[in-house]
Amino acid sequence: MTEQKIPKATAKRLPIYYRYLNILKDADKTRVSSTELSDAVKVDSATIRRDFSYFGALGKRGYGYDVESLLKFFKKILNQDKLTNAALIGVGNLGNALLNFNFHQNSNVRISAAFDVRPDLANTVQSGVPIYPMAELRKQLEDQQIKIVILTVPSSVAQDVTDEAIAGGVRGILNFTSLRLSVPKDVRVQNVDLTNELQTLIYFLDHYNDED
Amino acid sequence: MTEQKIPKATAKRLPIYYRYLNILKDADKTRVSSTELSDAVKVDSATIRRDFSYFGALGKRGYGYDVESLLKFFKKILNQDKLTNAALIGVGNLGNALLNFNFHQNSNVRISAAFDVRPDLANTVQSGVPIYPMAELRKQLEDQQIKIVILTVPSSVAQDVTDEAIAGGVRGILNFTSLRLSVPKDVRVQNVDLTNELQTLIYFLDHYNDED
DNA sequence: TTTTTATTGAAAATTATTTCACAAAATAGC
DNA sequence: GCTATTTTGTGAAATAATTTTCAATAAAAA
């Protein structure tokens, strides 16, 4: 939208590159080649060069890429130069773990509010995050201008909660439920389906010995 | 490997279909069309028909697919007719949540052993799963013939632990660390990178308004 | 300075995946 | 039994993603 559209496959790899560039910077490396990056992130070096080239000529022939400036560039692209607030809905088993999971450590995202149906949780603070009752979902999302939610509720209520969140202005959903959500086309859902991942792994193991 | 190779993209969708077929069966539905499935799982109906067709003609024209027999078929394909044991390595924040996460509810996978460095955890039982000290990793994996591990250790030790697990006979790794693991080509890694997912979501939000 | 080596950027080729569109087959209604 | 309707399965086309290849350029070595 902002620039010309980058392939989706490329977009999904940007955070991987970004993370490794941070590691390189912390190790005071000033330059890196596509081959070296390739080893670290397990993406073919030609694919890396192709990915980078969508953003212009970022490297220098015979030299490689300058870590610092590449990092600065990706930081901007990935919106990591500003803090993004997210809300977590459903402070159960997994939700609690995600409250403690330090998203803020390597991404400029912070969970600034959480919601749960359980009355004993409402109006407490868990892992430094205030928990609101479900009834306040829409209002708080609106008031706090939160555009991203992490959804860790039971599948049975996932669609209802989603509808409410979208009514509250949410634009992106990290969906840990097994339900495939119905959303307007300007709302984006990123599914993280743990059972699926495990089953896919088993399928590949059984059916693709060796090689991808 | 066992049959002719199915496209990877198709393979990744099989668990999604499988789950929804279970839901249909529980609701005593006997038939389903590709269009109806499409609505539920948010995959284009032509893609669904194409996916199914890799396994032969599973449907009937003018009728659709028989839920029961389709389910039976996918259960076999996905190895869900046998129980698969997995080990969890790293009983921290996220690891603990995954111990409680009921993989067994909708997939025939069970976490039958867990491992952690902390001495106070070793030789206890958490959420019904015995915790072993890290030193026993290789031996236990061998003894219990565990081929799949869920990796929830700090990134800093991820590669070492991986090497040890592979030495113990592991063939598949569900990797929750941010490290891209180096493994022999007959070992499969499925990455679940939460920070990445969140950053990708933000990127899509900022750069792809509307439409995929 | 000149030569060698390293490395990008991009065009072209290849491979993978999705979608269109419709004939063929089966069902459902009359 | 006939006709209208539904729905699959699949060639062909379109789109997306990866990989190969190599000229161009920068840095390092001679």
Task: Explain the overall architecture.
- The structure is a homodimer of 212-residue chains.
- With 212 residues, chain A is an alpha/beta fold.
- Chain A has 2 domains: 8-77, Winged helix-like DNA-binding domain superfamily/Winged helix DNA-binding domain (Arc Repressor Mutant, subunit A, Orthogonal Bundle); 84-196, Rossmann fold.
- The first copy, chain A, has 9 helices and 10 strands.
- In chain A, the strands form 2 sheets. A 7-stranded mixed β-sheet of chain A has the order 6-7-5-4-8-9-10, with helices on both faces. In chain A, strands 1-3-2 form a 3-stranded antiparallel β-sheet.
- Chain A is globular and about 60 Å long.
- Chain A starts with 7 loop residues before the first helix and ends in a 5-residue tail after the last helix.
- The relative contact order of chain A is 0.09.
- At the A-B interface, helix 1, helix 5, strand 9 and helix 9 of A face helix 1, helix 5, strand 8 and helix 9 of B.
- The structure holds a DNA duplex (30 and 30 nucleotides).
CATH architecture of the largest domain in chain A: 3-Layer(aba) Sandwich
In helices, the fraction of residues of chain A equals 40-55%
Mean pLDDT of chain A: 94
Low-confidence stretches of chain A: none
Strand fraction band of chain A?
Answer: 15-25%
For the termini of chain A, the CA-CA separation is 33 Å
User: What is the CATH top level name of the largest domain in chain A?
Assistant: Alpha Beta
Total DSSP E strands of chain A = 10
Oligomer: homodimer
Report the total helices of chain A: 9
Largest interface: A-B, 68 and 69 residues
How does the major sheet of chain A shape up? 7 strands, mixed
Order of helices and strands of chain A: HEHHEEHEHHEEEHEHEEH
Rg of chain A, rounded, reads 20 Å
- Side by side, the strands of the main sheet of chain A go 6-7-5-4-8-9-10
CATH homologous superfamily heading of the largest domain in chain A: NAD(P)-binding Rossmann-like Domain
Shape of chain A: globular
Number of domains of chain A: 2
